[in-house]
Amino acid sequence: MERKLTIALVAHDHRKADMVEWVLFNAEFLTEHHLVCTGTTGSMIRDALAKEGYEADVECMNSGPLGGDAEIAALVVRKQVDLAVFLIDDLNPQPHEADIQMLLRQCRVHNVPIACNRYSADLMITSTLWNDSEYTPSEPKYVYYQR
């Protein structure tokens, strides 16, 4: 890969083990990029990668319930995230549901690919479009709002 991506990684408590397992499975790819994570998830990822002998560029935001999802959403709005992986726990209520929906919405509005399960995350990180220097995603046409 020619360019270094910024990849946001977020996982709810019951999905953190899945996220760590996915990161380790894809460690050779992911450690070539800048990883931005919510607090606990980022700490777990950093520790797991270090234990396996990988050096990784992992930036930890606040924990999700303390604003980490909102911090990552702000990065999306500023076009500082290339890809997001958010392993959501759909089986348990989340106290910060509004922040979760905001992050998902900002990814959709700003045309940032977001994977919500491991299979879609694998498909996204293996896309050949990341290596295509001639490919540029088109900007969404929100004509009414862009003045």
Characterise this structure.
The chain has helices at residues 16-25, 27-30, 39-51, 68-77, 97-109, 118-125; strands at residues 6-11, 34-37, 57-60, 83-87, 114-115. With 147 residues, the chain is α/β, with parallel strands linked by helices. The chain has one domain: Rossmann fold (3-Layer(aba) Sandwich). Strands 3-2-1-4-5 form a five-stranded parallel sheet, with helices on both faces. Helix 3 (39-51) links the parallel strand 2 and strand 3 (57-60). Helix 1 crosses helix 3. The model has no long low-confidence stretch (mean pLDDT 93).
Break the fold down into its secondary structure elements and pairings.
Layout: E1 6-11, H1 16-25, H2 27-30, E2 34-37, H3 39-51, E3 57-60, H4 68-77, E4 83-87, H5 97-109, E5 114-115, H6 118-125
Parallel strand pairs: 1-2, 1-4, 2-3, 4-5
